[in-house]
Amino acid sequence: MHKGILLAGLMAGISPFTVTAAQAVEIEYWQYVFETRVNAMDQLIEAFEAANPGITVKHVTFPYADYQTRVVAANMARQGPDVLQLFYGWADQFIGGRVIQPLSPEAFPHAQIEEEFFPIVSAMKRGDDYYGLPTAVRSLALFYNKNLMTAAGLDPNTPPTTLEELVTQAKAMAEVDGAGNMVTAGMTLDMGGQDHQWWREVLVRQFGGAPYSEDGATVTYNDEAGAAALKFFTDLQLVEKIGQRGFMDEGQAAFRAGKAGFTVDGTFRLGSFRTIEDFEWGVTELPANAEGLRSNYASYFANAIGASAEGEELEAAEKFLAFISSEEAMKIWLDVVGELPARRSAALTEENLANPVYAPFLKGLEYARTTLFVDEAAQRQNTIDMANRVLIEGQSVEDSLAAAAAAEQAIIDRAKK
């Protein structure tokens, strides 16, 4: 039945999977609401349906806050989607809850996946099975407001390359009013955004530690390196006064409004930031430490096949998954969303590597790590709480770090049972 779907790709606009259903079939694709992602998927669905007149794809979206709950509830009622998007960090929960099914190795040969995709695709593999494939991958970089840099007497073409330079330049751009209220942040501080990834996989390592054991089963950041990394982050507000938690609610909102000099964010923000008209911005690699050590965090949303898909719907779902995992689809996703293609051949082109916006993210992929989350939402909240205990409650860095490590270890241990 399968003819090596993944191997074929899209050739001359023709789908890599020959229609075998004798009659029209409708499948559902679910993802959360993010404007550029929805727009990109609408384009892909239109192209897919044009090439495959026997298949209709119904595009269903939900607010991010409701998405996982809606997926799980629909799956329990046997009304789940045929193809769905999920963050790689949700994989254990979706697999354990039988929300998604393993990909057929006939339709998606493992050797081909491992040869053509970036290595972080392995985060969707459990045992001998892959449970999903990404269309795009994300890394982090430092966005900077060139106008604010110029106004502060900084060279807008020389963004910070080290943590020390980051602090110095951010302090030059930070502004408070007569009452001490922050008017312009030198840098956004948003653990609920991407700063929890920056702290975990970048700062902890740059201060000489590691967040977890190699297998991800043991928390290892409760040491001098972890404490130094947390102190560096919280001191950005408490000592250096270059930013403030909760400033304009979200870091990305403050940057978009032209009220923040720097913000750490991912490739997924490119589509949104491209609409900025009030100032010029740039992107650079995350700053290195004093010894030149760089680190980064790579992640992705995968597309998987729902557990209830079978028969003609399963065949159509496999065909659609292959389509949205093709090199051609990844190019569309890059143009519309700004996320980097998950296939090496589509990402590492001369054009992309020479692009001043894409290049810093691509360089970051070379030294990025992917956190093996067991419960991404709970682990993220634990990091937010850790910072807030220091920033709001005045708890010591060491005590808050120890509490966070114990709480996260309990999360991991519960998931491993």
How would you describe what is shown here?
This protein has two domains: about 20-140 and about 300-370, Periplasmic binding protein-like II (D-Maltodextrin-Binding Protein, domain 2, 3-Layer(aba) Sandwich); about 140-295 and about 375-415, Periplasmic binding protein-like II (D-Maltodextrin-Binding Protein, domain 2), CATH 3.40.190.10. The strands form five sheets. Strands 1, 2, 3, 4, 7 and 15 form a six-stranded mixed β-sheet that branches. Strands 10-11-12-9-13 form a five-stranded mixed β-sheet. The protein is an alpha/beta fold. It has helices at about 5-10, 35-50, 65-75, 90-95, 110-115, 145-150, 165-175, 190-205, 225-240, 250-255, 270-275, 310-325, 325-335, 345, 350-355, 360-365, 375-390, 395-415, and strands at about 25-30, 55-60, 85, 100, 125, 130, 135, 135, 140-145, 175, 180-185, 260-265, 280-285, 295, 300-305, 340, 370. Helices cover about 45% and strands about 15% of the residues. The model is unreliable at about 1-20 (pLDDT under 50).
